[in-house]
Amino acid sequence: MSPAVENAMKRVPREEFVPAQIKDEAYADTPLPIGEGQTISAPHMVAIMAEKLQLEPGLTVLEIGAGSGYHAAISAELIAPGGHVYTIERIASLASFAEGNLKRTGYASLVTVIFGDGTKGLPNKAPFDRIFVAAGAPDVPLPLTDQLAEGGILLVPVGGRYYQDLIRVVRKGKKLEKENLGGCVFVPLIGEHGHH
Ligand code: SAH
After folding, report:
1. Integer Cα distance of 89 and 94 in angstroms
2. Which domains, and CATH codes, for the chain?
3. Beta partners for 114?
4. Per-residue b/e over 178-194, b at no fewer than 16 CB within 10 Å?
5. Given CB 3.0 to 4.6 Å as the disulfide criterion, which of 9, 19, 88, 127 pairs with 118?
6. Active-site position among 41, 75, 96, 109
7. Is 41 a catalytic residue?
């Protein structure tokens, strides 16, 4: 792990991003339930994605699937100062959960939570230096590659509802270079350019 990612993992208190009744389990390296059938990702997956995204100060980042807000907070640590994280969540109660958690832990000025269907991206804030999807898509959602800046990196789990491959896409001019980083397990991405 790079020192920057290690530092971010140490600074963000995961117990502030899980429901009160499971705070004791907050430091288990596993996904945990956050309500509505959704989960906060396992810390190792958040760390791997932060490494593979090459997050640095100053970057503008889009996350699809805010959930608890934890992954957004880790990203915020890495893009500060000068950067910003936009995170979209399709379940209203989780969008408020993420927003509350991020405010309480001091990340509100670095992260904007948006309620809606993230498979469409966020055209009014595009292009993004980095985009990552925290849910499993049937294919790479086209609006997301369209909203990727030159040299930008997109990470998205692609496959079935229960098992996916983590795909990294890098924009080089009009070309998109794709690489398979290996197997992973995420909840399904549900929306116009996702599962239905
Ligand atoms: N990054 C989160 C993990 C969330 S799990 C964390 O750190 O806690 C994936 C989340 O993606 C769920 O909350 C789910 O509701 C959300 N999701 C699924 N499809 C979506 C879509 N089309 N747009 C936005 N959010 C979506």
Report:
1. 7
2. 3-184 (3.40.50.150)
3. 88
4. eeeeeebebbbbbbebb
5. 88
6. 41
7. yes
DSSP 2: -
What are the mean pLDDT values of the chain's consecutive 10-residue runs (196 residues total)? Answer: 97 98 96 97 97 98 98 98 98 98 98 98 98 98 98 98 97 97 97 98
Q: Tell me if 43 CB under 6 Å of ligand 1.
A: no
pLDDT score recorded for residue 131? 99
Which pair of structure tokens corresponds to residue 146? 């369209």
Phi and psi at residue 131, to the nearest 5°: -135, 135
Does residue 38 line the site of ligand 1, with CB under 6 A? yes
Residue 83 CB contacts under 8 Å (≥ 6 apart), including other chains: 56, 57, 58, 59, 60, 61, 76, 110
Separation of CA 24 and ligand 1 centre (Å):
23
β-pair partners for 88: 64, 114
DSSP 8-state code for residue 18: S
Distance 65 CA to ligand 1 centre (A): 3
CA distances from 191 to 79, 138, 141 (A): 28, 11, 10
Pair of tokens at residue 148: 């990727």
How far is 137 from 139, CA to CA, in rounded Å? 5
Helices (H), 80-192: 92-104, 142-146
Q: What are the residues facing 136 on neighbouring strands?
A: 188
Confidence at residue 42, expressed as pLDDT on a 0 to 100 scale:
96
Tokens 């498979």, residue located = 119
